[in-house]
């Protein structure tokens, strides 16, 4: 039993089969001239991309996911043509011509930015983002620990002062409520008395 191909597979196959060359009057001839001199295979691909992008725009009503598919297809082609980013020359040509061609295509007045380019993040960017997040988390933890020890010591001092004050007040109130005899009261009165001295000039 033969499985029917998905819409994405059909689109990918049709885009792979398109071989298009630019007309002499095309607005992209001048832009792609440098690519034609550097890498004829990428130049042919760029010419085909101009046609594929325009056709995809026309098909978007029938296929609402066509922009996503087109981005995925182009990302696959980028991996193939740049050897997963390892071919420095082709990588530079891809960024300088193919990616900029997409920007020109989406900026045409007939298409009005209908499909924006979605470039997957590189492993380096992902690693940097992850490292930065871990660094910020670590920094925040150390900041909280430092502040916690400072706050803890302040709270500890504040609590001790409150407890000491409460104990002193409680002892004074207890002595007053029990109506300690003057003899016993005088013995403890010196210990409980608060002496304030004023210096006047």
Question: Would you write up a description of this structure?
Answer:
- By secondary structure, this protein is mainly α.
- It has two domains: 114 residues, no CATH class; 65 residues.
- The protein is built from seven helices and no strands.
- α2 packs antiparallel against α3, α3 packs antiparallel against α4 and α3 runs parallel beside α5.
- The radius of gyration is 39 Å and the shape is elongated.
- The chain starts with 6 loop residues before the first helix and ends in a 9-residue tail after the last helix.
- The mean pLDDT is 80.
- This is PIR protein.
- Keywords: Membrane, Transmembrane, Transmembrane helix.
- It comes from Plasmodium ovale.
What's the arrangement of secondary structure elements?
Elements: H1 7-17, H2 29-38, H3 40-59, H4 66-81, H5 88-106, H6 123-178, H7 182-192
Helix pairs in contact: 2-3, 3-4, 3-5
Beta fraction: under 5%
Class of secondary structure makeup: mainly alpha
Number of domains as seen in the coordinates: 2
Low-confidence stretches: none
Q: Please describe the biggest sheet, giving its number of strands, its sense, and whether it closes into a barrel.
A: none
Distance between the termini: 110 Å
Helix content: over 70%
Inertia-based shape: elongated
What's the gyration radius in Å? 39 Å
Number of beta strands:
0
Which series of helices and strands comes N to C? HHHHHHH
Number of helices: 7
